[in-house]
Design goal:
The protein is α/β, with parallel strands linked by helices. 31% of the residues lie in helices and 10% in strands. Helix 2 packs parallel to helix 3 (109-118).
Length: 162
């Protein structure tokens, strides 16, 4: 099955929610109506949805090293980020796209909060290798980048909703 590259990597079937790459800034958030062809393909499944967390409060930087068990060491979602993710949740709820659970989520608290807002009825599971790599050495980054690439390229079965 071929994948349709469109809608800023909005692909349904399985879902990864991480913060390993893919920049999303509030000022870059320009919603666009998907084509009927894309909507049909998304309803059939067989795609991966990869989202980065919503906009964050940049006045609270991540501490280095980040403690994944302590959200106070991490940059949180901003109120705007929560609003953007609520809009994502509403947009997703308006479609019957097959979303496979559990949703894989970065260990960052902002990504977990994003998952709870965007997918309020879906179970999620933390994947320690879906993480931001800026504060890592090249050697530390390698398994994270390889894992993320693998997760984004694994085949996903289409499930016809007809």
């Amino acid at each position: 099955m071929s994948r349709t590259p469109a809608l800023a990597s909005l692909l349904a079937g399985a879902c990864l929610l991480g913060s390993a790459s893919l920049a999303l800034a509030a000022e870059e958030h320009n919603p666009a109506e998907p084509t009927p062809e894309l909507l049909t393909a998304l309803h059939q499944g067989g795609f991966v949805l990869y989202l980065r967390h919503g906009p964050t409060d940049t006045s609270v930087p991540d501490r280095v090293p980040v403690d994944f068990d302590d959200c106070t060491t991490q940059r949180p979602l901003s109120d705007e980020g929560r609003q953007v993710m609520q809009g994502v949740a509403e947009g997703l709820a308006g479609h019957a796209w097959p979303i496979e659970a559990p949703i894989l989520v970065s260990p960052f608290c902002r990504a977990q909060e994003t998952a709870r807002i965007a997918f309020p009825t879906q179970a999620h599971r933390i994947d320690d290798l879906l993480r931001y790599t800026a504060a890592m050495t090249d050697e530390e980054k390698r398994p994270v980048i390889e894992h993320t690439g693998k997760m984004l390229s694994l085949p996903v079965e289409a499930t016809s909703t007809a």
